[in-house]
Amino acid sequence: MSEEPQLPPFPDLGDILDRKKRMVEKITSVIKCKECKAKYERPFKVGDYTFKALSDETCEKCNQSQNLMIEEIYSEWIDPKKQ
Ligand SMILES: [Zn+2]
What we know:
Blueprint: H1 13-22, E1 24-33, E2 39-43, E3 68-78
Antiparallel strand pairs: 1-2, 1-3
The structure holds zinc ion.
């Protein structure tokens, strides 16, 4: 039937919904080395928590593994297509 109301087109809506669907949560752990005072980030690993001592990892700056600690964990939503 031609009497059906026509919705105005929303050309961008599909794209917005698509983007929401493909957004992924990226969790990052901020590592602090008490030895060389370096602070750097690496992807979150299962078992990470704030102020956890990382005895099984080495500092990416000075390579020691005695004084590493997770200082902060944060997450952000990213669009993998924009990577
Ligand atoms: Zn270090």
